[in-house]
Amino acid sequence: MTTNAALKIAPLYNDQSYYWVDGCYGVGEATGLPILTHALHYGFAVFEGIRGYNGRSFALKDHLNRLILSAARLGLSSPYSVSELMTVVEKLEEASQLDQFYVRPLIWTGGKAMGISARKSDVHVAMVLWNWQDHFADIQKRGGLRMMISPHVRMSHQMAPVQAKSSFLYGPNVMSKTAAEKAGFDDALTLDHRGRIMEGTGANIFFVKDDSLLTPVPDYFLNGITRQRIMMLARKRGLQVYEQDLFVKDLCQMDEAFLTGTAYEVSPIQQIGDVRFKKQTIANQLRDDYLSHVEEKADE
Ligand code: PMP
């Protein structure tokens, strides 16, 4: 009785996507899932976000390694290896002929066994590539990100596998970002149960104080690939980089603040709650360094 047409989902950003699902390539809309999909009910999925510059994915191997590791942290074994998935991405890049793009790999539990346990679940893998549309250029033109402080506290590593890029961990982030946008902000800063500063909803955070970079310890959140590159680039510039506990009361002592991530690249912050940051000098220097770095390392 059910037709495939009824299960189709809307095209991503009204754009053509190039996809691969469980071994099959396709162009057009990424098709829908059966409603009785374990991951849809329990959030049991892991994913990645990869940017393509000049027709090539940046830090592809790092992202795919993290994808497989995230799956393993949930007890899921990927039916495809990192090198097989790299070949898939390369084929999608070639088929798309796009210069700037985004790739979303996804591993999820299917509909073979409904119920809480994933022990007997079938594991699926998909990769979708589509044209990159820069959401951050406008924010940059308006003088940088405006953030509120999220009321949703981040989970600790005792509560969840916080180093996995897992769908079920994103629920509070979705709520925080939605609440921020509804209140007229661009994003939200998340804190843990002790009030320590964590990160944005889809990016890590850095602060500049004098000639030093300060950033929270990645114990309850993802140690981003961009974050690690920025720390390396900052040290190359002669900046001291400190990973330490930071609190909301510390914000007013900071000269600058910025977010880092695959999508955000390096995005200066103009405001968090009531605190305004007057400068963006080092953030912009590191942004330029990062953009040169992605050009240089595009084949990595
Ligand atoms: N934290 C969260 C919650 C994220 O979604 C992301 C984006 N993947 C990051 C940090 C930054 O990670 P990366 O630099 O690897 O993109």
Quick recap:
With 300 residues, the chain is of the alpha+beta class. It is 28% helix and 27% strand. Helix 3 packs across helix 4 (82-96).
List the helices and strands and how they pair.
Layout: H1 4-7, E1 17-21, E2 24-28, H2 38-42, E3 45-47, E4 50-53, E5 56-57, H3 60-73, H4 82-96, E6 101-109, E7 123-131, H5 136-141, E8 145-149, H6 171-182, E9 187-191, E10 197-199, E11 204-209, E12 212-215, H7 225-236, E13 240-243, E14 256-261, E15 265-272, E16 275-276, H8 281-296
Question: Overview of this structure, please?
Answer:
Helix content is 28%, strand content 27%. The protein is an alpha+beta fold. Helix 3 crosses helix 4 (82-96). The strands form two sheets. Strands 8, 9, 10, 11, 12, 13, 14, 15 and 16 form a nine-stranded mixed beta sheet that branches. Strands 1, 2, 3, 4, 5, 6 and 7 form a seven-stranded antiparallel beta sheet that branches. It has helices spanning 4-7, 38-42, 60-73, 82-96, 136-141, 171-182, 225-236, 281-296, and strands at 17-21, 24-28, 45-47, 50-53, 56-57, 101-109, 123-131, 145-149, 187-191, 197-199, 204-209, 212-215, 240-243, 256-261, 265-272, 275-276. Strand 15 (265-272) and strand 16 (275-276) form a beta hairpin.
